[in-house]
Amino acid sequence: KTVRIIGAPMDLGADRRGVDMGPSAIRYAELADRLSDSGVDPVDAGDLSIPRAEERDPDASQPSEGTAKFLREVEDVCTRLSDRVAATLEDGEFPLVLGGDHSVAIGSMHGAARAADLGAVWFDAHADLNTPETSPSGNVHGMPLAAALGRGAFGEMPWAHAPRVREESIAYVGLRSIDDRERELLRESEMTAYTMADIDERGMTAVVADALDVATDGTDGVHVSLDLDWVDPRTAPGVGTPVRGGVTYREAHAALETVSERHEADDVVRSMDVVEVNPILDEGNETATIAAELTASAFGKRIL
Ligand code: DIR
Ligand code: MN
Ligand code: MN
What we know:
By secondary structure, this protein is an alpha/beta fold. The chain has helices spanning 22-28, 31-37, 71-90, 104-112, 144-148, 180-188, 196-202, 204-216, 249-266, 286-298; strands at residues 2-8, 41-47, 94-99, 118-123, 165-175, 192-195, 221-227, 269-275. The chain contains 10 helices and 8 strands. α3 (71-90) runs parallel beside α4 and α7 (196-202) packs across α8. The protein starts with a strand and ends in a 6-residue tail after the last helix. One manganese (II) ion binds at residues 102, 124, 126, 128, 141, 227.
């Protein structure tokens, strides 16, 4: 199986600068070699070009209600990324998107959901369910799931609203930081949310198995979105919005191995993004290395 690596060095969706260097840092951490060792064929398609924040106005184009910084630029980048992801799938290859901040997942999901009913497993400390109306930060990296579901102002943005994603096919794993208004949205929704408490009680592999059941039920494939702030910041410090109490190194590997085991059995995973690695905040490229290692686990790397 050919895995097409698509770099999306986007930093317009988050406040902390430096996340645009994520794709370079993950490549430097030998992602391609690790994927080859996992038994897949990596092909690097390079990076999308992304405007610099300094040359743009974050408020240039805003929804009639609420705030979504650099919305025009996010639309441009995600539209191009969606095309790249869709073309990769048409060519029979697997799209692996390297962020960049999590706003790139809007493009990944949109592209992957053009020709398939798409579920998603969301490995993240955060719910990423804010809309421009509810967001306390105005940062689009806190909104990608709301965008894909066409919630709030995203309902009028066909570039964001993924064509074939239903909320009952989305499962979170590892939540521990949810904004007040996001919590209301989540409670009212039909999404499945496994928090850190569920992992404590039931163990990672059981939780991920259930999340995969949710995301595969009635869909044609699953998008796996891996936000590195999901991992505990003592292990993965190079992220813009660290939240203590995250998953351990071993739990993280167990989770992605569970994904790959299901994929080997049923060919369920359709697309993946690996996001929020910020080399400026990292300690010795440790977070990028963990990102590369976890991606290798997702594609079948095993100890024996
Ligand atoms: C926060 C942070 N909920 C926001 N979100 C992050 O800005 O909407 N998501 N960091 O990964
Ligand atoms: Mn996120
Ligand atoms: Mn996060």
